[in-house]
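User: quick one, sequence for these tokens?
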């Protein structure tokens, strides 16, 4: 059974609308800052921090992509997509990022997906709905 986490972008978020390319750019930024950490430690930390390649299929239509694990023993797949939903109370559209684990995803994938979720939510100041149902708020409180 697949599991999903969501980063919802509300009015207090850094952005209210996000594209799949912007999500890829944020993951590339994550990769670059972790590789700099590795350089400072004289250790190949970037491979441990981001052990994936970014793959996109033609049928994705710029709505989703997947991260494919470099070492199939440790990591398999994480799916990442963007979408929008109507808010029941206001009928306004709210954009979100969805992170999904497949049936063959490993525990390593879930750990990395949680890291990526927290990183993206903190950068975008969004509302993070974790795989376990808990919610973390990264937007500024009024």
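Assistant:
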């Amino acid at each position: 059974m697949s599991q999903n986490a969501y980063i919802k972008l509300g009015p207090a978020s850094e952005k209210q609308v996000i594209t799949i390319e912007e999500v890829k750019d944020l993951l590339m930024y994550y990769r670059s800052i972790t590789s700099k950490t590795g350089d400072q430690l004289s250790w190949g930390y970037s491979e441990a921090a981001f052990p994936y390649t970014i793959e996109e299929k033609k049928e994705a239509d710029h709505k989703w992509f997947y991260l494919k694990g470099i070492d199939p023993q440790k990591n398999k797949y994480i799916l990442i997509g963007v979408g929008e939903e109507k808010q029941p109370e206001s009928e306004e559209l709210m954009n979100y990022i969805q992170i999904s684990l497949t049936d063959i995803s490993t525990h390593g994938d879930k750990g990395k997906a949680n890291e990526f979720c927290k990183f993206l939510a903190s950068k975008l100041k969004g509302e993070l709905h974790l795989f376990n149902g808990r919610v973390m708020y990264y937007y500024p409180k009024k």
